[in-house]
Amino acid sequence: MPVKLHVDKISLSFGGIKALNEVEFQVNAGEIFAVIGPNGAGKTSLINSINGFYHPQAGAIIFEGSDITHMPPYKRAALGISRTFQNIALYTNATVLDNLMAARHIHMKTGMLSGALFWGAAQREELAHRRRVEEIIDFLEMEHIRKSIVGTLSYGLRKLVELGRALALEPTLLLLDEPMAGMNIEEKEDMARFILDIHELQGTTIMLIEHDIGLVMDISHHIAVIDFGVKIGEGAPAEISRDEAVIAAYLGEEEH
Amino acid sequence: MANIHPAGVFDTTYEQDMSVDRTARDKLWKNLAFVALLLVPLASVSGPLELGWISDQYVGLIARISIFVIAVQGLNILVGYTGQISLGHAAFMAIGAYGSAIMARELGFSFWTALPASALLTGAIGLLFGLPSLRVKGFYLAMATLAAQFIIPWVLRYPLEDLTGGPRPLSVPAPIIGPFVAYADDELTDGEPFAFQAGDPYFVDVISLELTDATAYTVVELVNPAGDVLPYGDVSMTVSRDSAGNITRLTYIASKAGEYQAVVRAEAGGSFKAVVRRSKALSFATDIAMYYIIVPLAVLLMFLARNIIRTRTGRAFVSVRDNDLAAELLGINVFGYKLRAFFLSAVYAGIAGCLLAFERNSLSLYAFELDISIEMLAMLIIGGAGFPLGAMFGVTFIRILQEAFIPFLRPWLADFLPQLFPFVDAVNITSAINPIVFGGALIIFLALEPRGIAHRWEVLKAAWKLRPYAY
Question: Which of B126, B133, B355, B423 gives 20 to 30 Å between its CA and that of B94?
Answer without folding.
Answer: B133
